[in-house]
Write a structure and sequence with these properties.
By secondary structure, the chain is mainly alpha-helical. The protein has helices at 4-18, 45-51, 59-72, 74-78, 82-86. The termini are far apart. The model has no long low-confidence stretch (mean pLDDT 84).
């Protein structure tokens, strides 16, 4: 299991291997926002145990595949308008 800081470090490491992000990339810690989740947790142990499920892709490969998709599909996400990205789904 990875915490948020570990995920950020892995994202930076993968991105450094794929694009030029410079050597001065830093993780900035910000003050928690009111109503912000204190903890994010996913636990797949129950589904692994009860259904004998296992992921088809490792976290490392999944992150690499995701980065490569975005690098290969710049025309798709560059065509999106800001309102398509900023608008919260399910909000009225």
């Amino acid at each position: 299991n990875l915490n948020n800081l570990q995920v950020c470090k892995k994202l930076i490491k993968v991105s450094k291997n794929l694009i030029n992000i410079g050597k001065k990339v830093k993780i900035t810690f910000v003050k928690d926002r009111p109503g912000h989740d204190v903890r994010y947790a996913l636990d797949s142990n129950k589904i692994k145990k009860n259904l004998k499920w296992k992921p088809k892709t490792s976290f490392k490969k999944g992150i690499l595949d995701t980065f490569n998709w975005y690098l290969d599909n710049k025309s798709y996400y560059k065509s999106l308008s800001k309102k398509d990205i900023v608008k919260r789904l399910g909000a009225k």
